[in-house]
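Appendix B. One record, verbatim.
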Amino acid sequence: MPELFVVIDGDWFTCKPQPAPSPEPARVIAYSQRDERWAGIHLGASTYTMGSAGCAVTAATMVATMLDPTLTPLDVVTYLNEHGGFTAGGLLYWAKVAEFVEDMEPVDYRKWTKTSADMSYVTSVLSRWPAVLQVDFVPGGALNTHFVTALRMTADGKDIDIIDPWTGQRGTVLGLYSVPGWTLQRAVYALAEYSLERG
């Protein structure tokens, strides 16, 4: 669109076209596994419920909201229960979440329970899209598995911004799930990566 010149009360004004606004960036919708709408739903045929052990389902759902902001953990766990999404013990089959969400594809699941986390890999994934991280729910003792939604590296690159499905609140890995002296290499035990490219 060309510039326009307008005269008002003898003064000349230039009207420049405004660029089209950028599309609203996709964002992750925060959820808690303990929300009463789904907390009592069992994970498959197991004795575990969303409220007690639904962190993986809830964290993966939050990642999926980048593609479909209407999704809730209730939608996802209902689909998983109807399509064999859990082991007999209630563990999540990660790829089953992607079956339910259009354009979501499972990419990789990497574990570092016996070695230090590969932070170059983690940083690379988080530069593209959110992911699901395994952390220690009670740091410092035997591993007590918990999954969180990782959003991005912090500005200083020394921590990871997360949404914790236990509370539905934001925080950081080291701020919530570490003990003094730990680094991310020690505090991250696994990463589930999904591709979130549309089309």
